[in-house]
Amino acid sequence: MDTILITGAEGFFASRFVQYYRDKYNIIALSHKDLDICDQEKTIEKIINIKPKYLIHSAAISDTGKCEKNPELSYDVNVKGTINIAKGCAVAGAKLIYLSSDQIYNGNVEAGPYKEDCVALPNTVYGRHKLEAENAICGIVEDPVILRLTWLFSLPERNVKINSNIIWNLVKAALKNEEITLPANEYRGITYVYDLISNFHKLINLPKGIYNTGSESNLSTYEVGKVILENMGIGHRIEELLIKDTERYKENNRDLRICNNKLKDQDIRFTNTEEAVDRCISDFSL
């Protein structure tokens, strides 16, 4: 049984990954309480002692607002911490799978969908730091797999973390009879977390490289909101619950759409966002 070390153990993705694959791999899941990735010496030592075949680095400060307010902390964790992880992998001979983000495209002025070889021009602290970390690890380990993930979504479950995400936000709004505002000028793929997780046994064995990872979509965030409510059987409440924000990103559309053809060439496929929403709602019997 291969050993996988995964950082960010208590996070939205990692907590579900551990449960999903616990009988297939020997998983060592480390949270911030177990390992401070900003401590280079201890990080390298920990990885050497565990000597995993694969290391999935999901630990990050992903709250973009928090990164903007505290760029030094973001740099320490998202860049320096990732470099420390990469150095540990290089010494221990572990294959590094780094979870990056579609946020690196947030700033590109040409319209998506974006391919991996386009010039990424992130205009946020988080996006710039994720891109800097990508570039750094490519100079440290020989065969990194870098996954540029889209926004992930799911619904609450026992013993795993729930993050703010579009489908859960809409469910809460419907239950509380509250309105929710969604931008009509934002376009991005949004991925069901279990579509990602169920593909991960293939993703860890990809050849080295950068891969756009997740669902493709040409829908605006507002249109995705409509799809969610319709799939929940409450399409008649769209006007009651959804506020269409046409002012945000009015001058320049926010376009984070990815092209995932590179993964398709490796026989790894994701449903589009509409299909992913349908699967999630079916899985949770909403």
TrEMBL record:
Secretion signal span: none
Pfam family, one: RmlD_sub_bind
Oxidoreductase found in the keyword field: yes
GO MF, one annotated term: dTDP-4-dehydrorhamnose reductase activity
Coiled coil: none
Pathway(s) the chain acts in: Carbohydrate biosynthesis; dTDP-L-rhamnose biosynthesis
Transmembrane parts of this sequence: none
GO CC entries: cytosol
Biological process, per Gene Ontology: dTDP-rhamnose biosynthetic process
Domain named RmlD-like substrate binding: residues: 3-283
Enzyme class: oxidoreductase
Keywords, comma-separated and alphabetical: NADP, Oxidoreductase
EC number(s) from the headed UniProt entry: 1.1.1.133
InterPro entries referenced in this protein's UniProt entry, alphabetically: dTDP_dehydrorham_reduct (IPR005913), NAD(P)-bd_dom_sf (IPR036291), RmlD-like-bd (IPR029903)
Similarity section: Belongs to the dTDP-4-dehydrorhamnose reductase family.
Annotated function: Catalyzes the reduction of dTDP-6-deoxy-L-lyxo-4-hexulose to yield dTDP-L-rhamnose.
Family matches, as PANTHER family: DTDP-4-DEHYDRORHAMNOSE REDUCTASE, METHIONINE ADENOSYLTRANSFERASE 2 SUBUNIT BETA
Name of the protein in its database record: dTDP-4-dehydrorhamnose reductase
